[in-house]
Specification:
Layout lengths: L16 E5 L10 H8 L3 E7 L1 H11 L9 E5 L2 H4 L5 H15 L5 E6 L1 H5 L4 H12 L4 E6 L9 H10 L10 E5 L4 H13 L5 E4 L14 E5 L5 H9 L3 E2 L7 H15 L4 H22 L7 E4 L6 H11 L3 E7 L4 H10 L5 E6 L1 H11 L3 E4 L1 H9 L4 E3 L2 H4 L8 H28 L3 H7 L1
Helix pairs in contact: 7-9, 10-11, 10-12, 11-17, 12-13
């Protein structure tokens, strides 16, 4: 059994792309730390930034006072920003204090921010210097989490890309699955791959530096997140080969993702059916139940997380929705092309953002559901448009078969809530006599 076949004519893959370059609404790339620090159990993320950076991370993570998180902010004060202090000396001192207090740290990420990039603080050189000082016990890497020119999911991409050059070399035939997933979802994925008799599977990022993740010319890799363009390129430069596939959202997406890997490793149709038939049936039932309120509805995607294209494919192919526009910050054809092939031609495909022009198009289209960032959601709700926060789709487990119904439910919930509120308003209106009628009765 296989997933959805590509549409004749290439679906949306051959459609013209509306290129937009203007004012954007994006979230900060530092937010990727919130899921990465939970994933890598022996890693620590030290943001070199301002108090605003620290407040953002604390708010996004909801860290309680008695928690011991694996991230912190080395705060740049006025003297650092003005060049009155030697920021490198201060950074070395903070790292020494951190590693003395937290001997469990095996990987230390120096994370650049908007302030550290504005003052041209060379964190790459700092990482090399600190690696020499603390190797082999601690590996020190750096990447940028700045949101000046990027969208928020690129924080993870930059982090994983920084890890690729230091991965050990290997000549073994191995599968690497790339992209951070919640542990329970990753375990489900590994179970499916084991049922397909695929061995030697590695995950990047791994839960520990001791997981022996390596890369070489016999490594093939599959992405489970569509925003990992830099990581994909870094792995290919190390000799690894990308397995193109739709992303594992929904029943059809998950099946197509697994089918691409199964074909790479010569898995028989019988083995594939034995491993996937039962979870496919569960996923299909869950989607059918959760998507009842989505059938026949329209959806409009603002560019935000780079999940837009695979999610639009899921909603249109598996939930009965119609896409009006699918906007994404960046479109890498080698990565999201398989999902575009499975989308029926019709929606506008846009890359980049000019937020005022896209707002005009959304207001004119009046979609049933608008998927957008936090900064746009409340104003659009005030105008009567039903919205879905794009960032929630990154923080919530949505991959693979067992989460397929939950994924559909995330989109149907705003529409169901709107229907309930509308019904309540009508009942209240019917139950409350008009003021003039009450006056006439008196």
């Amino acid at each position: 059994m296989t997933g959805s076949a590509p549409l004749a004519g290439g679906g949306c893959r051959t459609a013209p792309v509306l290129k937009e370059r203007g004012q954007r609404e994006v979230f900060c790339g530092l937010t990727g730390i919130i899921w990465l620090h939970r994933k890598m159990q022996d890693a620590f993320f030290l943001v070199v930034g301002s108090r605003t950076c620290a407040h953002l991370l604390q708010s996004a993570a909801g860290v309680m006072i008695f928690a011991e998180p694996r991230f912190a902010t080395a705060i740049l004060e006025e003297g650092d920003l003005a060049g009155l202090n030697d920021a490198h000396d201060e950074l070395d001192r903070e790292v020494a204090r951190l590693l003395a207090r937290r001997p469990d740290i095996r990987q230390l990420f120096l994370v650049g921010s908007c302030p550290s990039e504005v003052i041209k603080l060379d964190l790459g050189r700092a990482a090399e210097r600190l690696t020499e000082a603390y190797a082999p016990k601690v590996r020190v890497l750096n990447y940028s989490g700045s949101g000046i020119e990027t969208t928020f999911t690129q924080g993870e991409d930059a982090c994983l890309a920084s890890m690729v050059p230091v991965l050990p070399a290997t000549d073994k035939r191995e599968l690497m699955v790339v992209g951070a997933l919640p542990d329970v979802v990753e375990d489900q994925m590994l179970g499916l791959l084991r049922d397909l008799s695929i061995k030697n599977v590695r995950c990047l990022p791994a839960r520990s530096i001791t997981s022996n993740v390596a890369v070489g010319p016999n490594t093939v890799f599959a992405l489970n997140q569509p925003f990992l363009g830099d990581t994909c390129g870094a792995l290919e430069r190390r000799g690894a080969r990308h397995i193109p596939a739709p992303f594992p959202f929904g029943e059809a997406g998950t099946t197509a993702w697994l089918r691409a890997i199964a074909d790479e490793f010569g898995v028989s149709d019988e083995r594939f059916a034995a491993a996937t038939d039962a979870p496919r049936a569960r996923a299909s039932r869950a989607i059918a139940q959760a998507s009842e309120h989505l059938q026949g509805k329209s959806v409009f995607f603002f560019p935000d997380s780079q999940l837009e294209i695979p999610l639009a494919r899921f909603l249109t192919n598996e939930c009965g929705m119609t896409a009006i526009e699918v906007g994404s910050p960046f479109i890498h054809d080698a990565i999201v092309g398989p999902d575009l092939e499975l989308m029926e031609a019709g929606p506008v495909i846009s890359e980049g953002q000019d937020v005022d022009l896209q707002l005009d198009r959304a207001r004119a289209a009046r979609p049933d559901l608008t998927v957008c960032g936090l900064g746009l959601a409340n104003p659009l709700e005030a105008e009567g448009l039903t919205t879905k926060w794009a960032i929630e789709l990154v923080f919530t487990p949505v991959h693979f078969y067992e989460q397929a119904g939950d994924l559909a439910g995330l989109f149907s919930r705003p529409l169901r809530r709107k229907g309930l509120i509308s019904g309540l308003d009508k009942r209240l209106e019917a139950a409350t006599p008009p003021i003039y009628a009450q006056a006439g009765a008196r």
